[in-house]
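Example 4.3 (complexes with small molecules)
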Amino acid sequence: MRYACIASAKGGARCRATVEKLGTFCSFHQKLKEEGRQIRLAPKPDVILVRFYLNLDRSQKLEMTGIPRRERLTEVEREEKHINHAKQYGRDPYRYRDKSDSGTPIFGKEGINDLFLSQTWAELKREGYYLTDIHLKSHTEKKDVLVAALNYKASEIPLSKQILDELDQLLSSCWGYVRVWADPPNEEGKVIHTVNSSFLKPDTTPQLSLYFNHGLWAIEPP
Ligand SMILES: [Zn+2]
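Answer. The structure with zinc ion bound is encoded below.
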């Protein structure tokens, strides 16, 4: 697997170059460092969006616990938003896939397999990230997405025991594919990271745990 370089690139975005060893600089940033230039590490996020892609049976069960459903942007609106954001940072919006992106995939565009997030969630709380919003959105005809937004040093929204139990179950489940994206600062200067969890594997024991690692992210056996 290739990992994202840990340096901050133009405008405080995470460098898009990849490295073989987790937690290292790409050859470009390594060379600058050796020349005595000061290299900044990629910034910690202000907001972390933890997203779970779910089948409709599961999302309807969540909706019945009182989690609100929100409208999602249209495909065209999303593309436009990503393309503009990428261009603002001099980035190719189609570098990774035929859908546009402005950010950097931390664990490559393929992501990590068989991971669980309970430990990650606890670490984020210790680091001062609190749940400020939770909602459902439609994704495709067969899939919905549950979005949990964590904000740095914000006040946490109260949730019913039923919702907390459902959330606990999702966090402790094994996810077949987890992709983590670090986006460049948005128009308000906020850095948003996204943890996309898909392909829920209820009968599989997770092999890896995701670590926040001061916003640089890492994976290790739990
Ligand atoms: Zn780099």
